[in-house]
Amino acid sequence: MDEVMSMGNELIGKVGDNSSIFLAGTYRPSMAVLIVTFVVGLLICLFGLKLMRLLAAIVGFVLGAVAGVAAAVAMGLTGTTFLIALLAGAVIIGLLSIFLRKIGIFLLVLCYGFGVCAVVINPSSMIMYIICIGIAVVLAVLSVLYIEPIVVVVTGISGGFCAGMAAASLIGMEKNNLVGYGISIVLAVAGIIVQFMMHSRKIGKKEEVYSKKVKEEVSRESEVEKARMILEEDEEDEVSAQEESDDDIEIIEEDI
Questions:
Q1: Average pLDDT, whole number, for the chain?
Q2: How many other C-beta atoms are found inside a 10 Å radius of the C-beta of residue 222?
Q3: How many C-beta neighbours within 10 Å does residue 85 have?
Q4: Among the residues of the chain, which ranges form H helices?
Q5: Would you state the pLDDT for residue 16?
Q6: Which of 36, 53, 186, 249 sees the fewest Cβ atoms within 10 Å?
Q7: Measured between alpha carbons, how far apart are the two ends of the chain, in Å?
Q8: Rounded-to-integer distance, Cα 246 and Cα 242, Å
Q9: Is the model's pTM score more than 0.70?
């Protein structure tokens, strides 16, 4: 028994020494998993802002399921009631993330922000984890006020690191952390630039549509003003013609 415990402690110590099992190369996922991870990470990196609603819904369902499990464990539920608690948590939080936009964005940035902090800071103690959670909460709160820039930066970095580490493993360089970090940084920067460019183009199109509406309203008002002026001129002509006819009648009456 002592030997088993010592072997377990030794294994835990080895795992703890590695900052990341994925980065250290002690575990290598299958080729299919790496390809899927790379593609999903690249999509998030390049189109995180456009996929914001979908990502928020997924995060909401996952966090809701976790909350449901935690509540079930706290209440000592088992079997069917445990499953009901899990599904209830997933459905409630997931639907809130879908229909209440700001809640979904808050949870999305909270989850992805913590992931980014965990990758960058590489916490090795409870204090470091608390710091990561604190940073993620601050980013989540800011995302409610500044949605687009925070979401772009967070999804760009998280997706870039996800795709970059998967790419490093695909080329057989998973043991070299510098290669993985280098690819990740390049993809993250590229993704953030692409997202901001697409967002600025979207804003430009909206401004163009708005300017067209304004021009149409101005032209419509000018046409109405022209029509009103024409009507006023016609009324003035009629009044002057009536006055002239009255004058003629008076002259005729005087002659008679």
A1: 78
A2: 10
A3: 21
A4: 2-17, 21-24, 31-47, 52-75, 79-99, 101-121, 126-145, 147-170, 177-255
A5: 40
A6: 249
A7: 142
A8: 6
A9: no
